[in-house]
Amino acid sequence: MNRQLLHTPEGVRDIYGKEYARKLAVEDLIHKQLNLYGYQDIQTPTFEFFDVFSKEIGTTPSKELYKFFDKEGNTLVLRPDFTPSMARCAAKYFMDENVPIRFCYAGNTFTNTGNLQGKLKEVTQMGAELMNDGSVEADGEMISMVVESLLRAGLKEFQVSIGQVEYFKGICAQAGLDEETENKLREFISGKNIFGADELLLEKGVEENFRRLLLKTTDCFGTVEILHEIKKLSLNERSLGAIERLEKLYHVLCEYGVEKYISFDLGMLSKYNYYTGVIFKVYTYGVGDVIVKGGRYDNLLGYFGKEAPAIGFVVVIDDLLSALERQKSNIEIQDELIEITYNHDNYEDRLKEARRLRMEGRKAALIPEK
Known about the structure:
CATH architecture of the largest domain: 2-Layer Sandwich
Number of strands: 14
Distance between the termini: 29 Å
CATH class of the largest domain: Alpha Beta
Strand content: 15-25%
Largest sheet: 9 strands, mixed
Helix content: 25-40%
CATH topology of the largest domain: BirA Bifunctional Protein, domain 2
Shape: elongated
Number of domains: 2
Strand order of the largest sheet: 1-5-6-12-11-10-7-9-8
Order of helices and strands: HEEEEHEEHEHHHHEHHEEEEHEHE
């Protein structure tokens, strides 16, 4: 026997027994919370045409995709991200719908990266998308649903950090930055690399006042008070509008009663270029990466022929489970398995007992005595 076949490839793993039972229990808790908000289940294919995740759409870089070909020669990819698939689906089946559309989903995503740093190449994600609603109330619903879903799953210590892409884009446009420079600057600021950002802006000859504003975004984080402080700066109309939108969003979140989990970070910029407005990430201790990420993507559906605003999020279930374990949160697994031993003489009686338990909805396994 080839013992190498007993091992999984790098970046993937088997999940079984109690660990998988806990995973299913957490997924069920989150799923019920999403359904309470009126989100309906949808399932999209595990693989799609390459163009669904193309550079123009602003999703995962091509080198990080698992690519293969069908018999007609079309390039296909394993999905690295649910949002473009949801946008494609909405454009196909709800082209003429103008009322809000609410989707929720669960499945695995695949990223072909060599820079693992303890991360998996295949992870389970659960998420929700709200389309045809561009209101600040929709932003509030989405973020509040994240908080309530995590609380329902048993997580207690976490923070939702909220940013606004339009604030950054407004200053970039005012400074006259081209798309390539803006994307490079996005990487520096997102990584809090103030020196790299400053060097790039000096190289491009950006005016001093705009340079200061752009570099200051790395320091613009904290409670809602940071928004009031930023409004005192000399902002363009686009950036000022982004700050005022965040203030309105905070008011909505207070109405939901989740404000204690909220903070703001205007230096937060996603690697996904399809985000257009509010973006958010959830941080917690015990995990080295965000456990939830999401935001508004008002232009994405347009790539598939439907002009409509949208906002969504995904929970990385594997990372959430790690956080729950390290924070010693108890995940209740309903109906533990009842093992019933039997021998040749009592088999019929034990079988009747097992059948009775199963009819009551309880788990029962027959185990032969040794």
